[in-house]
Write a structure and sequence with these properties.
The structure is a single chain. The chain is an alpha+beta fold and 85 residues long. It has one domain. 32% of the residues lie in helices and 20% in strands. It has two helices and three strands, in the order E-H-E-E-H. Strands 1-2-3 form a three-stranded antiparallel β-sheet. The chain is globular, with a radius of gyration of 15 Å. The N and C termini lie far apart (32 Å).
Length: 85
């Protein structure tokens, strides 16, 4: 796994949810990597967490899977922040 960390202040981070129909316009993608005919987003939804320059993480899944992912992040942050206080 390649690791590169780019720190972005939380208030400047961008969060976006897309569908297969909206992904190209919403995320301004270069479709070249998908010229083989495979779908750009092979799931009902994509969740993106990005820095202002566009670097970040994208996660694909069903609505329930993305909600569970977001809830898991929230639980982890709450637990660590509460522990640090």
């Amino acid at each position: 796994m390649r690791q590169r960390i780019e720190w972005t202040p939380a208030k400047k981070a961008q969060v976006s949810v897309v569908t297969p129909e909206t992904i190209e316009d919403s995320w301004n993608l270069d479709v070249a990597p998908w010229d083989d005919g495979s779908p750009i987003l092979g799931a009902p939804f994509g969740l993106g967490l990005f820095s202002p320059n566009g670097d970040g993480l994208s996660v694909a899944g069903t609505a329930d899977e993305l909600v569970e992912f977001a809830e898991r992040i929230l639980r982890i942050v709450q637990r660590l922040v509460d522990h640090a206080a």
